[in-house]
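Recap from last week: sequence in, structure out.
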Amino acid sequence: MPRRPNTGRRNTMRKGGYVALEAVGMVITVLATQAMIRALLNPDSEPLWGALNGVPGGLTGQLILLGFIALVAMVSGGWAHTRKEPTTEQAGNSGGNHDRGTT
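Predicted structure tokens:
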């Protein structure tokens, strides 16, 4: 008798991957946005402790790169959020009691 593939475990791993991608996307979005705001408010400071010094264009180029990183992280986190399957409700089930008004 052939073994059936364990699709339940595969789906669980897939859900965990989506959750991880969503979390990483949120964290990177927050950090990149915070670095952009700090660089705008204090132009003398170096965004991300000088990690972006090699970017051409000076402060403007660094801010454009940070904005692009934040945008990509936000889109990937949002994509992962929409790809997750619902964990508590089935489609078409509101989860509440439906009272028909009879007492």
